Structures
1.
Amino acid sequence: MQGIIVFILVFFVVVTVHELGHLIAAKRSGILCQEFAIGFGPKIFSKKIGETNYTIRLLPLGGYVKMPDNVFDFNNEISPYDIKKGMQLYLKLNDNNKVEKIILDRSNDIDLIQIEVDEYDLTENLFIQGFTNNGQELEKFSVEKSACVVFSGMEEQIAPLDRMFSSHSWKKQFVTLFAGPFMNFILALFIFIGISIYSGVPVKEAVVGKVIENMPAQQAGLKEDDKILSVNGNSTSTYIDVVENVINSGGEQLVLKVERNGSEETIKITPQVKTVTNNKGEEQKVYQIGIYQKTKIDVVESISVGSQNTLYYGTAIFKGIVGLFASAFNGSFSLDNLGGPVAIYELSNEAAKNGLLQIFKWIGLLSVNLGLMNLIPIPVLDGGRIVFVMYEGIFGKPISKKAQYYLTAIFSILLVILMLAVTWNDISRLFGK
């Protein structure tokens, strides 16, 4: 149960922050945002605030901000509400006799005007024309720019041409698209800075921090705050010097000269030998004495350490993504290198077992991963759409609507197939344990 709660928390935080980036940038650019959704599939919660429907949907596979885009209306026949000639619907007029609501669901409200659609335009000329009074009169109604279409129990604001995503400058489109991944990087940065502030930053000097119980250091009498001056006669000005001496000890006894309360003492420690398996599957020996590096609370230095950690994990994940694409060409690709919702649940469950600090670290890692994955330049992701926008910025004209439409449709299908395969592989691996 704990793992499920952490999974939902991690998913909600990372996806919400990403989509908030898109939402804030779009609204500041004047782009209409009809829906802000967390999850996909059937909606389980919906609330309309201003122009935007805020929804939570059943399937935890991501999220989206619905921004109308005339790129996908290249043949002028696509209606997002499936309004067709001859269709029966209902109109609600405001005090200026302009349409403020177009209701697709059947209604017995006597204040509504029933109409059989003859012609309409909800993007440029903003009108709807049809037969009223049981088909005896043909009337034309002006539609407000802020009018809503009501369908399936939800109101959605219409999208005049000037509010559509692709009607804005390429710079505004770029900022709106990049804002999602950017917010993921900012979230990770704040998390890693927060972890550094809470945990403290490492002290560079060779000062002992926590001493682990029943390990050689404790048994030999080494104590917290002892300053290690030398190991086997080798001067140790930094903690790294101490670590290197332990690693290179070969398990032989070490003679430490330490400073404690203003006086020097000599302590003899024999490292503990442990056999571990490295990333290549090879066994190797490691030597430990059982001490941690001393840490201190330093907000300014924590900002630096948190930034370095964000950059470090971002670089590692970026290299992993590059390696993944390279594996597709050298024949070493495997679905085991990818993880879907099931794998995220597993890792969230592991993080939950290791405490709150590990949960936050996992959120930070996943946030960086989501930001970088979304910048992969394929059409269905932010990165692909950024490529389209950059093309327009460089050449002064957009890629043809048909090309954008078909490329996005093809890659959407491929991505769904890949996600299904990865999820099945994760489930098979989970139950095969």
2.
Amino acid sequence: MKIITLVKDNDPLVQQAAQLLVDAFREHWPTAWPSLKDGLEEVHEMLEAERICRAAIDDEKKLLGIIGGIPQYDGLVWELHPLAVQPDMQGGGIGKMLAEDLEEQVRKRGGLTITLGSDDEDGMTSLSNVDLYENLWEKIRDVRNFKRHPYEFYQKMGYVITGIVPDANGVGKPDIILSKRVSR
């Protein structure tokens, strides 16, 4: 496996990346990219000049995973968006390698922090379906993962929960904000 920069003129990988977004998010976030057309729109945004778009491929140039970065705050902070790994390969370290690669890419560009939002739209955590305006920091401190929500993956990578956007996806459906300092 190797990690490369995905470029616009690599149509086979662009197509695979779009399909990966559909496939990887189908189970828990089916409205994220419900069709190949939606996936292609997202991938084309990921390929804009100021962004980072990296792909993990195997020796046959089959796409294993992708990750994107969006500059914010004059490039001092980057949003990780999105990270997707082939569903049958999740848990094998590809996501970790892509996240570490993004951290290195952000450092090379002078970035200090990476942040991301990880939605809870279907009751995957104890932050879902509760009043987050009451005792918010206690709820964050005591957060529980009920259905393999990805926030724990990011915590293992050194990210910390730095906030919550209550009702980001409807009543009782928050966005969990995680951040990590990547400067040395």
